């Protein structure tokens, strides 16, 4: 039986569609999970988009700072970035919006605002993303988690997003290459944001409904803020939302032997949270002051532990108090 050298047009089109689908599946399958380590990223750097995120971009061009302890070279402060990394300014992930006639800072951007920001950093569509925090402190992990949450909110599939556990601190401590040249994109990309995924978001009205029905409300801030003993300058009053339970930031991160801050494993989180009396972490709503602590908790529960149904109230205490709503303290 002879076969012609030309494939029928409809078969050719079906083949193109199938190959495109297989390519997307193959790319999505690159990431081993929500967290990667430095050796894995070094081996797969060409297969992913490495996106550095930090709140002080000046350190991108600084040399790392070391000291000597008992004859050993110890990294004190991250400097530089992974070669060929893109750069996201953490402070650019929130915007000012008008709430009840007031201009409120640190709010979730619109899809258009987020899209413009990601295009400016040359984020590519349909290519796995590894987010790299500094790893110098727990706050940097929360910043990476917040970015991961926003990416998922605006349409990036979860399986295409991972965080480098330990961040640049772990990368440098492991002896991998560091670049101190400025990251200065000369063009923009065609990355597109989708409408926000409402399954990941909670509104003020939904928080109030959870209060009325005794739904699960989790406060992801440090315990002193939950108790009303401390507050951040962003919010006018110390306190918490009525009916909230603590999911304290102190339980979610550890300082590793190399000095980097890291997320824990799903197995360890289950033991830690159970030991703290947190037997239920979903479905419900998690909040903090402006979204950062809450995103860290969301990443732990939703991505690392694999427990779905936890939504974030992105405006947090900031939006709540700007609306003149009540808070309580011990």
Describe this structure in words.
The protein is of the alpha/beta class and 330 residues long. It has two domains: 30-173, Rhodanese-like domain (Oxidized Rhodanese, domain 1, 3-Layer(aba) Sandwich); 198-322, Oxidized Rhodanese, domain 1 (3-Layer(aba) Sandwich). It has helices at 9-28, 38-44, 111-120, 138-153, 167-173, 204-213, 223-226, 266-275, 292-304, 316-322; strands at residues 35-36, 49-54, 65-69, 72-77, 86-89, 95-99, 102-107, 129-132, 161-164, 217-219, 245-246, 253-255, 261-263, 284-287, 310-312. It has a five-stranded parallel sheet with strand order 1-9-8-2-5. A four-stranded parallel sheet has the order 11-10-14-15. Strands 3-4 form a two-stranded antiparallel sheet. It starts with 8 loop residues before the first helix and ends in an 8-residue tail after the last helix. Keywords: Pyruvate, Repeat, Signal, Transferase.
């Amino acid at each position: 039986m002879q076969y012609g050298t030309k494939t029928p047009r409809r078969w050719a089109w079906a083949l193109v569609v199938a190959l495109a689908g297989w390519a997307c599946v193959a790319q999505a399958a690159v990431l081993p999970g929500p967290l990667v380590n430095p050796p894995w990223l070094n081996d797969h750097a060409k297969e992913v988009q490495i996106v550095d995120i930090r709140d002080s971009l000046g350190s991108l061009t600084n040399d790392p700072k070391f000291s000597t302890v008992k004859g050993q070279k110890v990294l004190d402060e991250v400097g530089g970035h992974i070669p060929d990394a893109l750069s996201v300014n953490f402070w650019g992930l929130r915007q000012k919006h008008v709430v009840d006639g007031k201009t409120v800072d640190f709010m979730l951007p619109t899809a258009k605002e987020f899209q413009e920001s990601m295009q400016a950093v040359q984020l590519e569509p349909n290519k796995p993303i590894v987010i790299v925090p500094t790893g110098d402190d727990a706050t940097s992990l929360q910043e990476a988690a917040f970015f991961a949450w926003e990416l998922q909110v605006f349409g990036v599939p979860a399986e295409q997003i991972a965080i480098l556990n330990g961040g640049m601190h772990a990368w440098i401590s492991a002896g991998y290459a560091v670049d101190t040249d400025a990251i200065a994109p000369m063009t923009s990309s065609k990355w597109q944001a989708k409408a926000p995924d409402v399954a990941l978001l909670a509104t003020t009205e939904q928080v109030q409904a959870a209060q009325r029905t005794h739904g699960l409300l989790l406060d992801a801030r440090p315990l002193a803020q939950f108790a009303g003993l401390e507050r951040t300058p962003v919010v006018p009053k110390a306190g918490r939302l009525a009916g909230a339970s603590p999911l304290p930031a102190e339980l979610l991160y550890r300082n590793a032997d190399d000095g980097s801050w890291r997320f824990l494993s799903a197995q360890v989180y289950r033991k830690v949270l159970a030991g703290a009396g947190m037997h239920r972490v979903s479905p419900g709503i998690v909040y903090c002051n402006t979204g950062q602590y809450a995103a860290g908790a969301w990443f732990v529960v939703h991505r690392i532990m694999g427990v779905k149904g936890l939504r974030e109230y992105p405006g947090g205490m900031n939006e709540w108090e700007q609306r003149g709503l009540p808070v309580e303290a011990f």
